[in-house]
């Protein structure tokens, strides 16, 4: 449904009303229950599910993927970490470049609309089902609130409720069951998030296409382990009967053996005998090794590594854990960018269109803040050093790097606790001038040693300046050639450990030694 038809459908609706949704026209969608193809899963069954999806029938594959997430605790936990990490990121609606005051105001207003939408956080989690399935469809229920058209509810529809067009397997459509080609989705009625874990048509782009094999091998291993426990976990029960016993007596003996297996006791003929034999010890390690390998594969595929979810005490180090955490942050940043693009096109744009605020050439965009925390102490040092050599630092750049927002109009601005008043500075200046004038009067009784001590600080300062200039001259030349504050930041961090301050250390040591000797030699004067 295009924008023109949407407006026709909305005309005449009263205040505080809600629009019907597209899926409401097809009640069979709600009567068609999910299947469970993972029951008795084997290689052939997996192949049939995947092949059907490649041919355009997504039902079996979608049901299998849903079973995987429900039945595999490790897979669910790792995928949940990746999904819920997005909820920790702040978001904002940014105006276009070189925005006018009206565009800035519109972006702030649209951000307020989105923040107040009911169920927005849950909808983000629903959208990220696309990580596993390759796509996720959330239906928007529109309503008029306070003179504005707003989403009043978001409805996640299962992946099995959709199909793809016969001649375009990237065109997702509603699987109504009445048309082999499906029903085209209403424009502005859906948020269709595509999350390509790998290249290919939408049915082949989900991460579960990769994970299904580790899920299969893990389940086969668990099934074999259960059979192993059945064989080796309990002693064998052998019934012995005399050759003279008839068929009825033998049946009672067999029944007694089965009762012992279930209840720990039973009744057998007096002539019969039950012998318990402990089986030879078996090894369960191979089954657990297979399960452990499958779970590591799942962690690598979902989070990019294993050290943020598992630690074996052998290869787990702090440095490797940090590397794996950086990879995990890269995945989070990528997820956030893809979700932001979908929300901008399929939520923010309809909001502006339906409320008459849309300008295709100057449309705002929704963004998540994926920046990692910065070392504020090091940042302040870099800014101070850059300002000392005359490099200008933009307020906007500093605000973005530090995370400290620029104060808005009318906001209270923090000030230093100790602020000198002009009157106090004038009084201090006058007092200092009188003292300096008194100190500047030559003292006739000063001896030669005292004069040398008095002159030593000035000489030391001159030599220290020369040593510092020699040490910093190569670094200052590189800083002046830097192209940006970021480049200065990286340059200083790299050069700091290699600065040669030996001359300064020797100079300070000599000055302390000379002052100590002179003080001791004239202590009695």
UniProtKB/TrEMBL annotation:
This is Mu-like prophage protein gp29. It holds the Pfam family Portal_Mu. It comes from Cedecea neteri.
């Amino acid at each position: 449904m295009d924008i023109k038809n949407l407006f026709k459908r909305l005309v005449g609706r009263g205040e505080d009303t809600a629009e019907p949704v597209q899926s409401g026209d097809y009640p069979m969608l709600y009567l068609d229950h999910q299947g469970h193809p993972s029951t008795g899963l084997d290689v052939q069954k997996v192949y049939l599910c995947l092949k059907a999806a490649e041919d355009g029938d997504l039902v079996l594959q979608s049901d299998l993927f849903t079973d995987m997430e429900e039945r595999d605790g490790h897979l669910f936990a790792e995928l949940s970490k990746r999904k819920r990490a997005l909820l920790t990121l702040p978001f904002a609606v940014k105006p276009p470049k070189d925005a006018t005051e009206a565009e800035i105001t519109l972006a702030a207003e649209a951000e307020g609309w989105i923040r107040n939408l009911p169920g927005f956080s849950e909808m983000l989690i629903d959208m990220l089902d696309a990580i596993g399935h390759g796509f996720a469809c959330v239906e928007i229920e529109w309503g008029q609130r306070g003179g504005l058209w707003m989403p009043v509810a978001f409805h996640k529809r299962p992946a099995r409720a959709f199909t793809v067009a016969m001649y375009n397997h990237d065109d997702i459509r509603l699987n109504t069951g009445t048309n082999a080609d499906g029903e085209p989705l209403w424009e502005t009625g859906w948020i269709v998030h595509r999350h390509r874990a790998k290249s290919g048509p939408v049915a082949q782009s989900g991460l579960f296409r990769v994970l299904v094999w580790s899920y299969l091998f893990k389940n086969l291993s668990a099934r074999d382990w259960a059979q192993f426990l059945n064989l080796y976990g309990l002693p064998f029960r052998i019934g012995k009967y005399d050759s003279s016993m008839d068929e009825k007596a033998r049946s009672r003996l067999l029944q007694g053996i089965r009762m012992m297996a279930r209840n720990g006791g039973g009744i057998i003929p007096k002539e019969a005998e039950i012998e318990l034999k402990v089986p030879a010890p078996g090894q369960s390690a191979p089954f657990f090794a297979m399960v452990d390998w499958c779970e590591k594969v799942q962690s690598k595929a979902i989070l990019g590594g294993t050290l943020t979810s598992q630690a074996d005490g052998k290869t787990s180090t702090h440095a490797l854990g940090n590397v794996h955490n950086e990879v995990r942050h890269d995945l989070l940043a990528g997820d956030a960018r893809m979700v932001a693009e979908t929300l901008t096109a399929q939520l923010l744009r309809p909001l502006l269109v339906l409320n008459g605020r849309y300008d295709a050439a100057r449309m705002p965009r929704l963004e998540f803040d994926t920046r990692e925390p910065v070392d504020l102490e090091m940042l302040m040092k870099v800014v101070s050093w850059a300002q000392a050599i005359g490099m200008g630092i933009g307020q906007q750049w500093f605000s973005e790097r530090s995370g400290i927002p620029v104060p808005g109009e009318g906001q209270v601005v923090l000030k230093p606790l100790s602020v000198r008043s002009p009157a106090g500075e004038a009084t201090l200046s006058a007092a200092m001038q009188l003292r300096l004038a008194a100190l500047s009067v030559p003292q006739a009784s000063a001896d030669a040693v005292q004069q040398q001590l008095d002159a030593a600080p000035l000489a030391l300062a001159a030599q220290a300046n020369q040593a510092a200039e020699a040490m910093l001259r190569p670094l200052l030349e590189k800083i002046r050639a830097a192209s940006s504050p970021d480049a200065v930041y990286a340059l200083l961090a790299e050069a700091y450990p290699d600065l040669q301050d030996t001359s300064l250390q020797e100079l300070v040591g000599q000055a302390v030694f000379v002052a100590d000797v002179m003080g001791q030699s004239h202590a009695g004067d």
